[in-house]
């Protein structure tokens, strides 16, 4: 996996623990697109996702002394990012509960070739699906996003969430069932 000119992750982690910011950048850079995608899917907002990822990376940097050079960093970064997304979701729930502001999903629709009627139908379906996913209980949403959207295996998700593979399988199944019940044609 590592080329001759690449610095192994173990060496980078040791440099990071010593306070090397450039090493931190080299370590996390390959993971950024995946982590940002995960955060976007969890939070349904590009801005919120960027903020959550930035907070996650800041947390990792601040707690760099706890990093273990022998352990892979991808799972750790994913866990920290998920935790920051959970924090934001909790805050959003409180804000909605207190009715301080209305939060709606950012729905991006590409409009290259489809006609207006197809575009409207697609936009409505996407909004329905996004809204239905946003309303899933957090445990179901996490499992669904990690397995169905991120493409991770049940075993990998089980390790990330600290549950059994069967539990992940059940959560994904229940999430899909709830989505089917809420959206007629899925």
From TrEMBL:
Pfam assignment, any one: Sigma70_r2
A molecular-function term among this protein's GO annotations: sigma factor activity
Any one biological process term the GO annotation gives: DNA-templated transcription initiation
Residues in RNA polymerase sigma factor 70 region 4 type domain copies: 128-179
Domain of life: Bacteria
Keywords: DNA-binding, Sigma factor, Transcription, Transcription regulation
UniProt feature coiled coil, ranges: none
Domain RNA polymerase sigma-70 region: 27-93
InterPro entries, alphabetized: RNA_pol_sigma-70-like (IPR039425), RNA_pol_sigma-70_dom (IPR014284), RNA_pol_sigma70_r2 (IPR007627), RNA_pol_sigma70_r4_t2 (IPR013249), RNA_pol_sigma_r2 (IPR013325), RNA_pol_sigma_r3/r4-like (IPR013324), WH-like_DNA-bd_sf (IPR036388)
Family: Belongs to the sigma-70 factor family. ECF subfamily.
NCBIfam families given in the database record: sigma70-ECF
Record's protein name: Sigma-24 (FecI-like)
Organism annotation: Novosphingobium pentaromativorans US6-1
């Amino acid at each position: 996996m590592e080329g001759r000119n690449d610095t192994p992750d173990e060496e980078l982690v040791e440099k990071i623990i010593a306070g090397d910011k450039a090493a931190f950048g080299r370590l996390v850079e390959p993971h950024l697109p995946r982590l940002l995608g995960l955060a976007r899917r969890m939070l349904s907002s590009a801005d919120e996702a960027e903020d959550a990822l930035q907070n996650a990376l800041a947390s990792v940097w601040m707690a760099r002394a706890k990093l273990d050079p022998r352990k892979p960093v991808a799972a750790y970064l994913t866990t920290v990012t998920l935790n920051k997304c959970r924090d934001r979701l909790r805050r959003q729930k409180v804000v909605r509960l207190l009715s301080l502001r209305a939060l709606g999903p950012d729905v991006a629709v590409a409009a290259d070739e489809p006609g207006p009627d197809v575009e409207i139908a697609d936009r409505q379906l996407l909004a329905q699906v996004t809204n239905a996913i946003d309303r899933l209980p957090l445990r179901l949403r996490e499992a669904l996003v990690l397995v169905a959207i991120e493409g991770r295996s049940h075993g990998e998700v089980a390790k990330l969430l600290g549950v059994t593979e069967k539990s992940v399988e059940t959560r994904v199944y229940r999430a899909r069932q709830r989505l089917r019940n809420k959206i007629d044609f899925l």
